[in-house]
Structure formats: structure tokens, C-alpha cells
Amino acid sequence: MKSFAEHLADCRSLHQRRPAISVPIRQALGLEVADPVHAVAPYPSFVASAMDGYAVRVVDVPGRLQVIGDVPAGTIPDARISPGTAVRVMTGSAVPAGAEAVVPVEDVRIDGTAINVATATSVGRHIRGIGEDVAPGDTVLDARRLVGPAQLAALATHNVTAVSVHPRPRVAILSTGDELVAIGTEPGPVQLVDSNGPGLAAAVEVAGGEVLHVGHVGDDPDRFRAAIDALPEVDLVLTSGGVSMGAYDVVKAVLDSEGIRFENVAMQPGRPQAWGRLGSGVPFLGLPGNPVSALVSFELFGRAALGRERTIAQATLTEAVPRSPRGKRQFLRGLLSDGRVTLAGGPESHLVVGMARANCLIVVEEDADSISRGEQVQVIPL
Ligand code: AMP
Ligand code: MG
To answer: Is 246 in the pocket of ligand 1 (CB under 6 A)?
Structure first.
């Protein structure tokens, strides 16, 4: 059997970025930065007050000072601080010439046009210096970083209106199985509703991909072949079902002879997996059909092929895992809260509603055949 790590590495090897394009920054949300962005100007770009208060000379406090002016945010100070004087400033307003520190308004007693300051201060106190955040030439955003709200704000701060990013990976999804009907259709007595189509489409979108096609095809090899050939141009094709040893496993029947690898991976759920490149060179993953297996496989391998892997965290297990198959990496469903994780939803791979009660995967490593209550485990928050 193939190890989990080896299969993960193979899926990672399928990842290829789309050529970079430049987009307005608001369209870059969730995309990967292609070229690093450097600061042209320093930030902060002028010496500013960090507090509402009074700009002073250090030698003048403690003491009584005459207030000779006022600097609202966005105005250029006209007063200059001379011995024995202060200027009222606001958070973010420019600090007048001659000022060495700002005394917060809370530390001042106002007395007509004068202030009394009871405590000493030091040079630079409550003053924001030029370039404290970034100097010219510093990196504002590294390549490979995903653009989120803070990254957008950093770009906006530097007046960067467009950024070069890799477009979302495009994905096509095909459910296989004669027993499946589309959602909204009444299934016959031994039929079921295709849940992998909608589930995988959502998982791709959460991962930052763009779903160009979600379809269903039965277990007929010619129809499956035609459905694959009719897919739009994408960066990854995902199928579900039809990859194991069954007599009607259509994905295997058609693609085994075309260079796609069909393998048993030492994991649970998700043992049968297919991967490779279609004749067109497009990356392909054949995920198992069981709904939990399909979703778990996407979270691990689909995301690897898209370059969007989940981060792994640690949590304390609040109950024991009495047994786990030795030699296989197990992914149990769990409920994670405050660094503690409980089992949720049941271990079997057809319990899709059970999975809907979970918010993470609990990793049971290959060499563990049980885990005691209170042990630290790896979790993958979903
Ligand atoms: P297969 O690998 O095709 O034998 O499928 C394994 C199990 O998953 C079978 O019980 C299928 O009925 C079920 N299954 C396969 N595809 C889907 C799907 N798209 N939605 C829901 N269940 C599925
Ligand atoms: Mg099937």
C-alpha cells in the first residue's frame, strides 16, 4: 500500500499556478500574490502624534505651559514650539516644529489658555516616527502570500491600486454512479442524491478555486469518456466514485490505461485514490465515492493539487480513541473548541450528516493503534 505522505507528495506535484495577471486590489481578495510589492515611500510618511494631547519640549515638563495653537488631523501646523509653550494635537495630526514629545490629554490639567503637566516625559514619547512601519524599498507584500483584509489594507496604505496575482485555479467536477440522481429529483428505492457534486464544489470554492463545471455521469465507459472530453478548460479535474475494484468502476475502467494511477493509500477514510494528468496534460484526481471519503480526500489531496493546503493545529483530546488501524493514517471527525477536541459524527465514511456535525479532522498517525484521553493530537480545522 502507498503511504499517505507519498500520495500527498504526488498530489502536490500536480500543482501549477496560472500565469500572473494584474488586477485592481479589491479583486485580489483570496488570490496568491505573484510579484512582491515594495514600498516607494516610508510609512508613516510624516511625524505624527500617537495620542490626543499636547506637543511639548521635554525640558518644559513637569511645568505650566501656554497653549499657542491647535493642529487638527490633516492640517499643516503653523505654530512652532518655543520655551514654555505647547500646541494641542490630535491622534494622527502632524507634530509642530520644535516639539519633542506629546503629553496625553489625560495627563494634563487645563487652566484657561495654559496647561499644567505634573509628570516628566522623554524625547519621542507618543510620537510616530517616519518609516516606523516600512521604509522605502521594504516589502509590503511577499510573493506567494494570499491576499486577505490586512494585505489589502497594506496595499491601500501605500496607494497601490493594482497587484499582480495568480488567478483562481479553475476546477471541473464529475460525479460518477448509475445510482445517483441530481438534487431536487426524487430518488428511486435504491438510488441516492448526488451529494459529492455540491459538496466538492463548495469545498473547491472555500479553497479559493473557481468551479467551472459540476456534472454527473453514469457508469458507462463511453459516456464517461465523452463527459471527460467535453469538460471546459480547467486547471484540475476532480471525479468522485468509480476508482476501486468494483465491476462497474468506470473511472478506473477508462483512465487506468491512459496513464492515471489507481492506488490504495494507507489511510482511512479514502483508501482508493487516483491521480495523474489526463491526455491533455490537465491534473486529475479521482476521489473515492463515499461522501466522507470524497470530502476528506479533497481537503487533503485536492487542496494540495491546488496549492491551498490546510494548516494543522494541536488540540487536547477530551475522550479516548479506543482503536485505530495500525499502519494507516486515520482522519476522524471532531468538534474543536478552545484547544480541546471531541469525536463527532462517527468514524465511517458514509456518515455524511455526521461529518456535517464536525468542524475539524483529527489525525491518528500510522503508528498509533489507540489514543488516550487527554493526549495532544493533530487537528485540521475545516
Ligand atoms: P464507488 O466508489 O463509486 O463504489 O462509491 C462508493 C459509495 O459512495 C457508494 O455507496 C456510492 O453510492 C456512494 N457515492 C458515490 N458517489 C456519490 C455521490 N456523488 N454522492 C453520494 N454518494 C455517492
Ligand atoms: Mg460508483
So the answer is: yes
pLDDT digits over 257-276, tens only? 999 999 999 999 999 999 99
205 and 290 share a domain? yes
Q: Ligand 1, closest atom to CA 241?
A: 3
Q: Is the CB of 270 under 6 A from ligand 1?
A: no
The tens digit of pLDDT for each residue in 72-82 reads 999 999 989 99
- Report yes or no: 319 and 349 within 8 Å, Cβ to Cβ: no
- Same domain for 319 and 356: yes
Relative to the alpha carbon of 220, which ligand is closest?
Answer: 2
| Distance from residue 258's CA to the centre of ligand 1 (Å) | 23
Candidates 224, 290, 292, 351: which one to mutate for ligand 1, based on the most atoms within 8 Å of Cβ? Answer: 290
Indicate which CATH number applies to the domain containing 160.
3.90.105.10
119 occurs within a structural domain? yes
Q: Say if 135 falls within a structural domain.
A: no
User: Of 76, 104, 128, at which residue does a domain stop?
Assistant: 128
Q: What is the residue whose three cell numbers read 471532531?
A: 334
Helix, strand, coil share of the chain (percent; to 5): 20, 35, 45
* pTM for the full predicted model: 0.91
Backbone angles phi, psi at 235, to 5 degrees: -105, -10
Parent domain of 30: 21-37+140-166
